[in-house]
Amino acid sequence: MLDARTPDLEELLTRGVTYLIDENQVRAKLAKGEKLRIKFGVDPTGPTIHIGRAVPLWKLRAFQDLGHTVIFLVGDFTAQIGDASDKTDERPMLTKEQVQENLKGYLDQVGKIVDLSKAEVVYNSDWLSKLNFAEISQIADAFSVAEMLDRDNFSKRFESGTRISLREFMYPLMQGYDSVAVKADLEIGGNDQYFNLMAGRTIQKKYGQAPQDIMTFEFLVGLDGRKMSTSWGNCIYIVDEPQDMFGKIMTVNDDLIETYFRLATDLSLDQISEYLEQLESGVNPRDIKLELAKEIVRRYHGDEAAENAHQGFLQVFSEGALPEDIQEISAGEDTRFFVLVSDAFGVSKSEARRVISEGGIKVDGEPVTDPQIDVTTFASGAVLQKGKRHFRKLV
Question: Are residues 302 and 251 in the same domain?
Answer without folding.
Answer: yes
